[in-house]
């Protein structure tokens, strides 16, 4: 899987205002900004993202995904990435 493919999968399941994905094909790092995170705690946000991946996590197609999740307001005030 490529970063572009993983990005497309996440975008297909979650409306993102900003999304970056980097990694080595097995270990991934994502920065995700979505209004769908409004009012949700960190674990609930991560579950939303993992839900977009479906069985890809269970089958080890995506081995590991580290993420930073922001609402649009949080992103506007976040340090530059």
From TrEMBL:
PANTHER family linked: BOLA TRANSCRIPTION REGULATOR, BOLA-LIKE PROTEIN 1
Top-level lineage group: Bacteria
Family membership noted in the UniProt record: Belongs to the BolA/IbaG family.
The name this protein goes by in its record: BolA family transcriptional regulator
SUPFAM superfamilies: BolA-like
Pfam families linked: BolA
